[in-house]
């Protein structure tokens, strides 16, 4: 029976400091999103210390997994990763442990060709990992919209659809949304792609031209989106479809591995 054994999907963690103590944490909404569909899934939070594991320990963990979910975060990737300096007056939260951990994680995951879904910060991290760069503040970039949420609104409103994105032909998203040329997405980010990483394919753009999703054709499955499809998939079918597609890719990868 195909779904008898649950999929094991790794979820990256942030290092959160509360008082004198630090905690490795992933948002509840990401964990619950993986449990939304009919396919049994066990989410496994990967502490933000993957880079501190030995190569043997890294390989042992990766060999157990069927996929990786890269979450959003309150923190932003340090701009030194794309050869830029922090802007004057930059008060963005940083998480150097997540930065270092995920870079080591990407090395292992790409080598193993595990399916990956990147969301928000995860989307930005993957773009930079493949040699791309980011706008620090979209609302200050000429010709681009302000993509930030209104933090005075209730969280349900902040995560509600905010603008449309146009899907590119011959992509993963266009194959999933065959009857739709455009889909509505939420918008909860200050940063965004400036230059696309090498080997990546644009999947969707906002009306201001900003890249909102990309894939990597060379990978078995790598999709990254700037918006938050983990939010309330029971209310938003487009979110549920993206999650289901990712889980299906993880299942297909496991099936292929078991037949090798």
From TrEMBL:
<keyword id="KW-0378">Hydrolase</keyword>
<dbReference type="GO" id="GO:0033969">
    <property type="term" value="F:gamma-glutamyl-gamma-aminobutyrate hydrolase activity"/>
</dbReference>
<dbReference type="GO" id="GO:0006598">
    <property type="term" value="P:polyamine catabolic process"/>
</dbReference>
<dbReference type="InterPro" id="IPR029062">
    <property type="entry name" value="Class_I_gatase-like"/>
</dbReference>
<dbReference type="InterPro" id="IPR011697">
    <property type="entry name" value="Peptidase_C26"/>
</dbReference>
<comment type="function">
    <text>Involved in the breakdown of putrescine via hydrolysis of the gamma-glutamyl linkage of gamma-glutamyl-gamma-aminobutyrate.</text>
</comment>
<dbReference type="Pfam" id="PF07722">
    <property type="entry name" value="Peptidase_C26"/>
</dbReference>
<dbReference type="InterPro" id="IPR044668">
    <property type="entry name" value="PuuD-like"/>
</dbReference>
<protein>
    <recommendedName>
        <fullName>gamma-glutamyl-gamma-aminobutyrate hydrolase</fullName>
        <ecNumber>3.5.1.94</ecNumber>
    </recommendedName>
</protein>
<dbReference type="GO" id="GO:0005829">
    <property type="term" value="C:cytosol"/>
</dbReference>
<comment type="pathway">
    <text>Amine and polyamine degradation; putrescine degradation; 4-aminobutanoate from putrescine: step 4/4.</text>
</comment>
<comment type="similarity">
    <text>Belongs to the peptidase C26 family.</text>
</comment>
